[in-house]
Amino acid sequence: MKVLHATSEMYPLIKTGGLADVSYSLPRSLKAHGADVRVLLPGYQEVLNHHIDDYRDICRCQFQMAGKSFHLRILEIMLDRLDVPVWVVDCPDLFDRPGNPYVDSNGMDWPDNAERYACFSQVAALIGAGQTDIPWQPDVVHSHDWQTGLVSAYLSQQPNPPRTIFTIHNLSYGGNFSYDEFTRLQLPEEWWHSDGIEFYGGFSMLKAGLVYSDVITTVSPTYAKEILTPSFGYGMEGVLAHYQDKLTGILNGLDTETWDPAVDHVLTKNYGIKDRESGKKENKLALLKSLGIQNTDQWMQRPLFGSVGRLVEQKGTDILANAILLLLKGNDAGFIIIGEGQQQYVDQLKVLQKQFPEQVKLYIGYSEQEAHLLEAGADFFIMPSRFEPCGLNQLYSLRYGTLPIVHHVGGLADTVIDASPDNIKNKTATGLVFYKPSALDLHATLVRAMALYDHPEHWSQVQQTAMEQNFDWHQSAEQYLSLYGGEHEQKK
Fold it and tell me: Model confidence at 55, in pLDDT bands (50, 70, 90)?
């Protein structure tokens, strides 16, 4: 089976979030299951600058959009760690610019984002329809998030299109643009209606993916149910309810080549279930030293809570900060937070660090090394997300024996079993779960976590059960292959 993945980012070439990790891991897993896979990626400056020596020119094409002619190359990357061919759409006018793929240095959307991703989607559709010089045509085109929402719409205009799959990684990003932009791009007029891509007077690229794809997937079973409700639907709940018969939730998998304490090359000491206590202790010390923490003896003797991620409302950064404040007024614990995001949350955490300099350590930014060390060295990993389509850090945490503390939403609800007395007794607990996105509820759960930490027998058992969980890509890849083949079973 020939499968083309169209995506706006892919680790390690370009990454802003979990989409990049999925775009790296899923195609590789599909190949391991026998599929013939290609990944199509925009030719961002960062991609081209870092890998220019690894390219091969496989196709040149041109097309019209917005009254302009676009001339572009399709380049092929073959890197050992990618394991599948990656095709890069080299169009300098659209993608050759520094920094983030979607926003400028001031954090504002690139003003031509609609044009950029409409063009990228059209290229993907041309390849999907076999209308380029590339001697390879997919049986399935799998598109990811709003940046590729128009792919299925373009392919729907072809007489014999390949099967189309569209995956929602985060519904809160809809790719919404104005009607003026719709007309400027000269998109097909037959798309402009309430059952097409029109959305509250403008148009939505994400909605195009929902309407025109054969199958819609999202990245966890619980999130697939949540997005049918106004609380999580971002205005799309009616559309999704209409197409519920083609909606499926498939849990993202874990890249065990990159995230496994037994083989993780970043760690000071690799470890498994049997030697987790000594392994985590050594990595905890390495983490503290790496962050420049001086009083390591004191930090080593207390429970260490960690968090890595974007400091934004969705991730519950304010909930986390307020809960830490409540806890540290009467308890001895350590907190290490790694991330970057909205200034208001950065400032809130800086105030917290100033108030508790011996117990709170911030790393503003992102470091892959520190993220791995934190997963190995921390005792608990906190994810108080208001919503979380899947989440990957809780999967990493389970693998590393770092008990996840999560809000009961999306993929977090699907992957973490609460350390309730009954679940501890029957040895099914893998972390701690709270059910309301509030500082009070998180604080109560942090108190429960500290009590578990102080009960060595229960603590050790929950750690072991967490590390025994298997969330690799094997089962998820099989579910996708089933959908690719047309065997779609409605999930209720």
Answer: confident
State the pLDDT at residue 51. Answer: 63
pLDDT tens-digit readout, 108-148:
899 999 999 999 999 999 999 999 999 999 999 999 999 99
Which tens digit of pLDDT belongs to each residue from 338-367? 999 899 999 999 999 999 999 999 999 888
Tokens 């791995």 correspond to 372
Query: Letter for the amino acid at 75?
Result: L
Picking from 482, 461, 371, 368, the residue whose alpha carbon sits closest to that of residue 419 is 461
Could you tell me if 225 and 249 are in contact, meaning their C-beta atoms sit under 8 angstroms apart? Answer: yes
- pLDDT mean over 432-446: 98
Within a domain: 390 = yes
Number of domains in the chain: 2
Residues 240 and 348 in one domain: no
**Which residue from 420, 412, 407, 409 is spatially nearest to 449, judged by alpha carbons?**
420
Query: Which tens digit of pLDDT belongs to each residue from 208-225?
Result: 999 999 999 999 999 999
Same domain (yes/no): 32, 174? yes
Q: What is the pLDDT of residues 255-284, one digit of tens each?
A: 998 899 999 999 999 999 999 999 999 999
The answer on 90 and 34 residing in a single domain is: yes
Residue 490 in domain: no
State yes or no: cis peptide before 12, omega within 30 of 0: yes
Question: Which domain covers residue 233, as residue numbers?
Answer: 2-253+473-484
